TrEMBL record, chain A:
The protein's name in its UniProt record: Acyl carrier protein
Predominant location: plastid
Domain of life of the organism encoding this protein: Eukaryota
Family: Belongs to the acyl carrier protein (ACP) family.
Example of a GO MF term: phosphopantetheine binding
Taxonomic placement: Eukaryota, Viridiplantae, Streptophyta, Embryophyta, Tracheophyta
UniProtKB/TrEMBL annotation, chain B:
EC number: 2.7.8.7
Organism: Eutrema salsugineum (Saltwater cress)
Protein name: holo-[acyl-carrier-protein] synthase
All copies of domain 4'-phosphopantetheinyl transferase, residue ranges: 138-220
MF term (GO), any: holo-[acyl-carrier-protein] synthase activity
PANTHER family given in the database record: 4'-PHOSPHOPANTETHEINYL TRANSFERASE SUPERFAMILY-RELATED (PTHR12215:SF15), PHOSPHOPANTETHEINE TRANSFERASE (PTHR12215)
Length: 140, 284
């Protein structure tokens, strides 16, 4: 099982009160600074501007994670819970992503699938993909 | 061949220093040394405490982040296995103290060590932790429980993540259990390749390459391009081996082809260990 270190930064934008801007690095070492208000993309940066995922989404992700990893129902999971700290290996992560695709009727790119490390990241990605779907329909 | 250092310790308990690790010569070219621990065999709390003293502060912190005692123990054993294994290969001039090893990461996050000059890779499951070591060429390993159940339909999983050729291969296997087994074997081989490459999963998504068994030989696998026109074109730059460990796990080893070794197939030397307690050479 490989482990990649990722760094995520989040900071509150003063003019957008309820928005959380998070910056996800694909590769461990390359880092480029961004200036606020002007975002440039490069191969090594992936910027995601999204509202923090709804609590219901986080809960649904937690349920799927508990099932895949065979955790007891009373295991306390938070949005920040890391898959690796729960004992998930890469095969587990892929199975979790497949279960999320089925649950939310979305399609996750493989490179995105491998980069999900916490419940929050999974929930954010799901909501991002659900919003982008052409036919608007409530996630089940 | 079994080397046991337990007898002296059993008389006086763990109040004395544990014996040093038995030093070893570096692997030769085209040879991979594969070491593994079975967590169920490590029960002594004082031994685990000794292991925890080998770790860096960062490693200790990561162990403590694991949720639950079993996961903490396995994380501790994983770092212990890496440090003690590498320390065995120290050349005479350097200290063989596992605590003195300094790890760094390559540009993509793959862990490396400068001294001694070897490559290593680690993989773990709930019940087995393994570390592969090579010299001169990068190595990737992956282990999986043979009995691991896949929650999704195996073919649906393969269609989503594997290459078309691999899906075709799996779909020819009619018995579901045999199909699941071949799926798991392929998973370990593909993981081992990506880890040997050391550039992260984005560099080699699973559906962009095919691994297939070599024709006309009992074992050995080839990495092949994903081209519909010419699937016989296989990349000779990477060598694979698939083994069974402890009767319970598949272990895939992938190393880069080394010109100097000629056409020799990959040779894996397997040892089971409880660091500082017992090393056992498992004959292949």
């Amino acid at each position: 099982m490989a482990s990649l270190s990722t760094t995520s930064l989040s900071f509150k934008a003063p003019s957008i009160q309820s928005t959380r801007i998070s910056q996800v690095l694909r590769k461990a070492s390359s880092f480029q600074s961004i200036s606020f208000g002007r975002f440039h993309s490069s191969k090594s940066l992936r910027l995601q501007i999204s509202c923090a995922a709804k609590p219901e989404t986080v809960q649904k992700v937690s349920d799927i994670v508990k099932e895949q990893l065979a955790l007891s129902a009373d295991t306390a999971l938070t949005a920040e819970s890391k898959f690796s700290a729960l004992g998930a290996d890469s095969l587990d992560t892929v199975e979790i992503v497949m279960a999320l695709e089925e649950k939310f009727n979305i399609s996750v790119e493989e490179s995105d699938a491998q980069n999900i490390t916490t419940i929050q990241e999974a929930a954010d990605l799901i909501e991002d993909l659900v919003q982008k779907k052409p036919a608007t329909s409530e996630a089940s | 061949m079994r080397i046991s250092a337990m007898s002296q310790m059993q008389r006086v308990g763990f109040s004395i220093e544990l014996p040093s690790l038995v030093p070893l010569q570096l692997p030769s070219r085209m040879e991979t040394h594969l070491w593994y621990i079975l967590p169920d065999e490590v029960k002594s709390k004082s031994l685990l405490k000794h292991y925890s003293q080998l770790l860096s502060p960062t490693e200790k912190h990561r162990v403590l982040q694991m949720r639950g005692d079993e996961l903490k123990k396995n994380a501790l054993l994983a770092r212990t296995l890496v440090r003690t294994t590498i320390a065995r290969y120290q050349t005479n001039n350097a200290s063989d103290d596992p605590r003195c090893l300094i790890f760094k990461k390559n540009a993509y996050g793959k862990p490396e060590v400068d001294n001694p000059p070897l490559h290593f890779n680690i993989s773990h499951t709930d019940s087995l932790i393994a570390c592969g070591v090579t010299v001169h060429v990068p190595v990737g390993i992956d282990v999986e429980d043979k009995e691991r159940k896949i929650k999704h339909n195996v073919l649906a999983f393969a269609q989503r993540f594997y290459s078309p050729d691999e899906v075709n291969f799996l779909s020819t296997i009619l018995d579901p259990e045999a199909q699941r087994t071949e799926f798991i074997k392929l998973w370990t081989l593909k993981e081992a390749y990506v880890k040997a490459l050391g550039k992260g999963f984005s560099a080699a998504p699973f559906n962009t390459f095919t691994i297939k068994a070599k024709a006309h030989t009992k074992q050995g696998y080839d990495l092949c391009a994903n081209s519909v026109e010419d699937t016989s074109k296989c990349n000779g730059d990477w060598k694979f081996a698939l083994l069974e460990l402890a009767g319970s796990h598949y272990a895939a080893v992938c190393t880069e082809y080394d010109q100097a070794s000629g056409g020799a197939p990959l040779r894996v030397i397997v040892r089971k260990t409880i660091p500082f307690v017992e090393d056992e050479l498992i004959s292949q």
